[in-house]
Amino acid sequence: MSDWLLHHETSIRLGFFLIVLLAMMAWEWRRPRRSLSLLRVRRWPANFGLIAVDTVVLRLLFPLLAVGTAQVTADKSWGLLNRLDVPWALAVITALLVLDLTVYAQHVAFHKIALLWRLHRTHHTDLDLDVTTALRFHPLEIVLSMLIKLAMVTALGAPPVAVLLFEMLLNATAMFNHSNIDFSPGLDRILRCFVVTPDMHRVHHSIHRVETDSNFGFNLPWWDRLFGTYRDQPQDGHIGMKIGLKAFRDWRATRMDGLLLQPFLKSNSNGGAQPT
């Protein structure tokens, strides 16, 4: 079964991605949580354009991505889990938890380190929040994230199946928790004990920096509670809160060229942005 999954990795991941993307789009259309401030035609071309650029860049720069690297690591018995000869099921669970914690720690670092924040803020300058925001990352951030992921997969000796499952889960939960979907507060309270929900993650996209620097989890919600970065609700309420960053509220937040230039722009004293 694991050999079949790995052999059909690309098809499985693409199919799963499209199913979740279309499901979230349909849910947003039927039951939106918030009214969007901009028409989708103003935002979606750049958001989808970024994921296309990111995919091409990764394929050009990396002969092996995460699952392929995990397979090489397993074949050569590299990494901690392989050295310790951990039982397969325990190795899979351990790898899923460690990889998710790595994403959390990386996310915190991208907020706290100025140079990394320049890369990551492309994600945060979206003026609305919906499923396409989950795709909105600068290519330079994607490359650096892949390097970190490959290093952790190799050092840990993560089983290839665990890496494939993690990639699929992270992709799906990111689209879920960025989605503009509405469901009952009671269900949200239950779900956020096990997974990052849209209401929990929306706080992270607040225009208020103290809220932007909270709720860093993409998949599991436990790390934020454990490390003291959890914030339950936005101060302005989910309907009244403003999404994005104060310095980027014009074409630079909505057009493809503006998004690609963002790491090379800095905020000025008037709240605008200028080239460095």
Q: Could you please describe the fold and organization of this structure?
A:
The chain has 276 residues and is mainly alpha-helical. The protein has one domain. The chain has helices at 2-7, 9-30, 40-61, 66-75, 80-83, 88-112, 114-124, 139-156, 160-178, 185-191, 198-202, 209-212, 222-226, 237-240, 256-261; strands at 265-267, 273-275. It has a two-stranded antiparallel ribbon with strand order 1-2. The protein is globular, with a radius of gyration of 19 Å. 38% of the residues are buried. Mean pLDDT is 93; it is low at 268-276.
Summary, kept brief:
With 276 residues, the protein is mostly helical. It has 15 helices and 2 strands. Mean pLDDT is 93; it is low at 268-276.
What proportion of the residues form beta strands (DSSP E)? under 5%
Intertermini distance: 52 Å
User: Strands across the major sheet, in which order?
Assistant: 1-2
What is the strand tally?
Answer: 2
Structural class: mainly alpha
- Helix and strand element order: HHHHHHHHHHHHHHHEE
Query: What is the overall number of helices?
Result: 15
- What proportion of the residues is helical, as a percent range? 55-70%
Mean pLDDT: 93
**Gyration radius from CA atoms, angstroms:** 19 Å
Uncertain regions spanning at least 5 consecutive residues: 268-276
Give the number of domains: 1
InterPro entries: Fatty_acid_hydroxylase, Sterol_Desaturase_Related
Domain Fatty acid hydroxylase: 93-229
Keywords: Membrane, Transmembrane, Transmembrane helix
Subcellular location: Membrane
What tags apply to this protein structure?
two-stranded antiparallel ribbon; 61% helix; disordered C terminus; mainly alpha; 15 helices; 276 residues; 2 strands; globular
